[in-house]
Amino acid sequence: MHKFKLNKLCCLGLLALSGSVLAAATEEGTVNNSGTYTYTQKINSASTAPHYTQSGSGGFGISSGHSADFGWQHSFAEVMSNPLVQIQSATLLIRAYDVDSEAFHGLNGEYDGISVDGVDLNPGLLQGTNGTWSETSFDLPISSITDDGLINTFVDIDMNAAGWITTLDYSLLTITYMETSNLPPSKPTLSMTPSTCTLVTDDLVVGVTGPTPADPDGDSVTYSYRWFVDIGQGSVVDDEVAGKTDHTGNTVLAAETVAGETWRVQVTATDSNGLASDPEFATWEDVGVDCDQDGVTDANDDYPTDPDRAFNNYSTQSTLAFEDLWPNKGDYDLNDFVLQHTFNRITNAAGQVKEVTFTGSAVARGASYANAFAISFPGTEAANVESSTFIVDGTPSAITPEAGHAGETVMVLFENIFDVLPANAFPYYNTQSGDDRALVPVAFTMVFTTPVDSASLGSAPFNPFIYQVGQRGKEIHLVDKAPTDLVNVSLLGSGDDATNTGTSTYYQTATGHPFALNIPTAWSHPYEYIDVLLAYPQMQAWAETGGISNPTWYNFPTTIHCWKC
């Protein structure tokens, strides 16, 4: 939003009024209406010093442009001479011609700012249309009158220097007051919702939270609301002038706001005697632009109120499947643990990973051995984990990184898969004909203290593995995924395993057959003791050609050999 220039009245010689005899304004007078007084004072080109002196190229009755700013001075002497004067309302009405402040001009319109005693008024601009006379009414802060009885006013013409010209006819001060020893209510204390950043889906709500008491005399108090909006012109105008609803309550509904707008509300307290407080303001700037100020616009930000998070990066729903007889192929049914998963790497505006989550289901256990399931996250250390939670079938538990690792963070999610996929009449879980038990829902969340470089962390499913309970070093990973620091290195390259650490070849046979799979879909695993190459004949060529042949082998089962095919 535009910030007005400082009041220039000092430069115009209009502040040297203390103790001076005020000359007559063009028009002024007081009307007594049964004890309520209305004072008016009009200043125009016929007014004289100290109210107004035409100097330079600008002034009342003169077509004035950007370099012709000028000022004038209203006065209300009664407030200084009569201690019983209490103001009920005070407005400043300015009549001007050809004020091209229509919002469709954007920042290129004619925007003429008005300030009093060096403080910008609300609305922040003269309001008008091309080729017409218009009147703009400003609510004056009571304190701008009661401090010294002088209202030093300044117009900053064509603030954006866009070549516009306007003519001011007059400025009319209207003060309604009464004579009483009763005091006005206190300026209200406000709350605003939202209080920090504002989305286009948020209603704008202002609340009065104090002070207590609201009125020093104990009078009852009511509150009035005047709403302003900047829809692109650079400063706020009355909402109805901008084509909005004329809001008079404490709420603007989200349906009334548009991304990029700034909204402001003026709240004034009035007591049962009609005395008014100074107004207080609440402002919602740049609605729905970049709420969390992370550099990503709200429209493109998956977490518009969170500066640490900006983007979701979901993986394809996939299935992990493990053979636990490694380093031997054994029955090679690849159903000893089966897990469906979808990961999300949540990144910040710079593309660094702040959080990793996955949701999925524990599907099957075809193992007789008790196995654990873990994931290694490279590129970060255990000390960088701010928090982590694992939820199994609706029951959450906080988990901590496994000790003994450097350059990676290892999270053990299932310490014993039997605890999650137990035996019943069937010794296994969902690997035999007739065994059709419910999948067990799981969810994992890990938050990093310092966001991790995305390339260093890698992509989902990162480095998942199982190991045998009681033999921590017997780790079984996906093809070419390195083991952790706790692996029993003597097992690498033994049995059917053709691991070669020198060439970073891991967890495959000499012909390329894997001991673990990550299949990019929900997958029907082989029945117990059924070789995966029998259940999925196309897998052999895929494995032995390094994935070149039959890339969708998992879509072509021999249906009699797999679970729920």
Report on this model:
By secondary structure, the protein is mainly β. Helix content is 5%, strand content 35%. The chain is built from six helices and 27 strands. It has helices at residues 9-12, 78-81, 143-146, 454-457, 532-535, 539-544; strands at 27-33, 36-44, 70-75, 85-97, 113-116, 119-125, 133-139, 150-156, 167-179, 189-193, 204-210, 221-230, 237-238, 251-252, 262-271, 280-284, 318-322, 337-347, 353-364, 371-378, 385-392, 395-398, 408-414, 440-452, 463-468, 471-477, 516-519. The protein has a seven-stranded antiparallel beta sheet with strand order 22-21-24-19-18-17-27. Strands 1-2-9-4-7 form a five-stranded antiparallel beta sheet, with no helix packed on it. The radius of gyration is 38 Å and the shape is elongated. The model is unreliable at 1-22 (pLDDT under 50).
Q: Count of DSSP E strands?
A: 27
Indicate the low-confidence ranges by residue numbers.
1-22
SS summary, helix count: 6
Helical/strand content category: mainly beta
What proportion strand? 35-45%
Shape: elongated
Strand order of the largest sheet: 22-21-24-19-18-17-27
Q: Could you give a short description of this structure?
A:
The protein is mainly beta. It has helices spanning 9-12, 78-81, 143-146, 454-457, 532-535, 539-544; strands at 27-33, 36-44, 70-75, 85-97, 113-116, 119-125, 133-139, 150-156, 167-179, 189-193, 204-210, 221-230, 237-238, 251-252, 262-271, 280-284, 318-322, 337-347, 353-364, 371-378, 385-392, 395-398, 408-414, 440-452, 463-468, 471-477, 516-519. A hairpin with a 2-residue loop joins strand 21 and strand 22.
